[in-house]
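HUMAN: Would you supply a protein with fold tokens?

ASSISTANT:
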Amino acid sequence: MGAVSEGERSGRAPGSRVGPEVLSSALAAMIDAVGAHSGAVYLLPDDEPVLEMAVMAGLPRSFAAPWERVGLGAQIPVAHAVRERRLVWVGGEEEMARSYPRVGMVLPYSFALAALPLATASKVYGAVFVTWPGSHAPELSDRERHELRTGCERLALRLERAAAGNRPARSGADRPAAGHVGADQPATGSGADQPITGHARTDQPAAGHAEADQPATGSGADQPIAGSGDAGTPDPVEAARLVARLPYGLCSLDPAGRVVFANEAAADLFGVPVDELLGATLWASVPWLSDPMYEERHRAASISGNVTSFVALRPPSDWLSFRLYPGTTGSTVRVVRARTVSVTSPPDAVRDDDAPPPLVSMSQALSLAGALTETVSVQDVVRLVAEEIAPAVGSGALALLGVRAGRLHVLGHHGYRDPHVVERFDRMPLASPTPGTQAVTHGVPAFFGSRSRVEQLYPGREFASDGFAAWAYLPLIASGRPVGVCVLAYAQPHDFSTHERAVLTSLAGLVAQALDRALLYDAKHRLAQGLQAALLPHSLPSLPGVEASARYLPASRGMEIGGDFYDLVPSRPLPAAVIGDVQGHNVTAAGLMGQLRTAVRAYTTVGQEPAEVMRSTNRLMIDLGTDLFASCLYLRLDPARGRAVVARAGHPPPLLRTPDGRVRALDLAGGPLLGIDPEATYPGTEIELSPGCVLALYTDGLIESPEVDIEDAVAHLGRRLGEAGDLPLEELADELVGHEAGAEERTDDVALLLLRVAAREGG
């Protein structure tokens, strides 16, 4: 089907909303029909292109907080389903991490998801998603597809009828009617008109579902407390005695993690009375369970629908083993004393197979994701992956390879003793049969836990020379196109668990986004450097009687290109020097700077006097129709007579150092900035240049600072010129810009032109 058009979106009638009872019952019917364990309904408001969550079932609404409001352009399944008006299927953790890395990063759990649009032939009203445990088959069955599509079609028709009848009802933001879905209420029921009922705080089970203390395992074989079956209602007294006789702790959590039941054995193990446990989350009422890691395991069980285990240390030395049995109405938790935990083991030493590796925790993954957003250049990305991501996942070495013109190119590497091992990948054609090229070409990560495995799949390739025993090849895909591949190498054979593969794939998606931005930044940086180099003099000409040296420093922010310029013009009979500063440090400023420098050269060559050169340049700027201004300082040099004529247009005063070491700022007449007044005049001022004196021409980037008064800054530069003025001119130039050259946050570009008058022959 085609994408949603603007006309379709604008065609939504106001009031195309129904009450939560209709949405709830429709969602319940779909969840029950396909055996899902959670889901949600989104609606499109009338006035903006966003999806708003109306009802959610099977999970606490807080779990979906990042996606309460979703833009139609967002890279998440429900938005994708609406944009393309089709069913979107995500078959598991790895596929989620590969196709939707942002969702995979926040929810690195084993679950499957289907998202469908709520749409009629002409209008889109919203979307639905439902989820299953990760044990679901890799593909949806025909029956499941049919049930979901027909359920969404029926709900879309009800929304259409409500809109046509102008019968708006409460949206999901309104308070739901009693007995219907709320923030933490799960879905139950199967009829088309049956509402979603909530889980009672009194441990009363929801109709049609497992009891509060009963895990939703499907068969009941692993359930601590058996249900009543068809024999009738169980004796509550006998049920209480049964629970009391259990040799382990048992408690029931609602979908939000609040305790709604706990037996005395659980209270004894927690060290907290039962009445203090009820109504609160375990992580709030049991101090030693306040580590976010334990709450994360409950979240993982609830979202994946899988039985989940972990151990925790009850101070000072008692280890307890927890097993969570999730269901649509909450979770049952069994607690026993752990028997196999060493006293030297960390709290997460004993884990269920599905538990996340200790170095790839949820919180650390989010921290790494945040750090990647701060990278700027390609080398920043390489450095971050080497210093933070590779150690976090236990990798001993890495290589980051980019894709350009059908070949791999080495962008950076770390941890390889022999750099030639990585260099063999440089300029490798993508058609070559290697793990790296295959990962890029097909967009599928490859994990090799041992050397024999990779040599079996790629015979004839030499992998022994790098000294590693396991590898992960992670394709870097940004905006649907490959930008490179990240190779992680491990010193020992490494078993990549399902969870670790998903997290690595998610991290690769984030690395790809950072690398894509960095490649663009580096390309702009090269463009800026090339443009700046083309616009400024490649070298200064030799002038009789005058020694010259110049420096240019770009701004450390933006594109590192600016409007500062300098030039030395060997015209006859007298040479000229010029320095200027066009407002801004971007491509526009640089382009205008190139025009001004060319104009000054032309006016000098035809013999115009300094005042006339300034007037002509000013008129040119105004004729160009630019909104930018420029400052400029122009000198006509006469070293034979020891004189110079200076014209000034709003530029900082030059500094003159005499041979005896004294420095003064020259007080020159001048006019306004170039480009303001077409009638402005720029009178020339004659100054004396005795042999051995040094004239410093500079732009305001060398002296301006938010913390320093401009006059104090000029005085400070003058003192530095006076102290170092006897140095050779090249060393003096380095000295004067030395502080600025090391500045990390230089907000303006800097230009400096130094002129030293040579001694007269026979003088």
